[in-house]
Amino acid sequence: MAKAATQSRQSARVAQLRKGATLEMVRLTCPDTAQALKLAENFGIAVIDSDGIRELHERLIIETADSLSEALGERAMQIHLQRIVGAFVGSAHGAGQFYSRAVTEARDATAKAANDTRDEDLDGPVGYDSAAQRKREFAADMGVQAHALRMAAEGTIAAYKQIIGEVWKPFDRPVDNPGHSLDRKAAETQMSAFD
Fold it and tell me: Which keywords appear in this protein's UniProt record, sorted alphabetically (predicted)?
């Protein structure tokens, strides 16, 4: 019985971690180069230089690290670059999630507009786009933006590997949950009344 109690206390001490965005998450939510090109062509959006964005951000991080190399130790540099790359990856992931929601809204609006019996989804006055068309165009814009941020994130990750010599991984920080520990203390106090 004492062994079971010890094991439950140990498992209760396991810290919950807040997971950071990963490159895989970015790649799942943000369009790749081929898809961004297709969006640009189909919606008349300017074609972006994907490789140029990636290379520029890779150089930016490398030059930043070079300028700080005399002032920062190896571990301090790693922590600093970890945070910078994490910000780029988090930004790209957020843009990718926003893009995904915009695509869902565009699909829903387009499906509703295809229903001839719905008056509220009919095209607007002559010369104005329908609500569904505006949502599709907005989603396409968000897709190209998410792709650009994906390329920036990939460039910073490549620079991190070149500078630090390791593959970048997100920092998983413990979740602050002060109310939970207070609840646990109250429960322990209440349970002690049964002894």
Answer: Plasmid
173 three-class SS? strand
Is pTM beyond 0.85? Reply is no
Range of the domain at 37: 21-115+128-171
Number of domains in the chain: 1
pLDDT digits (tens, 9 = 90+) for 119-154: 554 555 555 567 888 899 999 999 999 999 999 999
Q: CA 105, CA 139: separation in Å to the nearest integer? A: 8
- Which of 90, 91, 68 is closest to 170 using CA atoms? 90
* 104 inside domain: yes
- Note the pLDDT tens digit of each residue in 54-108: 999 999 999 999 999 999 999 999 999 999 999 999 999 999 999 999 999 998 8
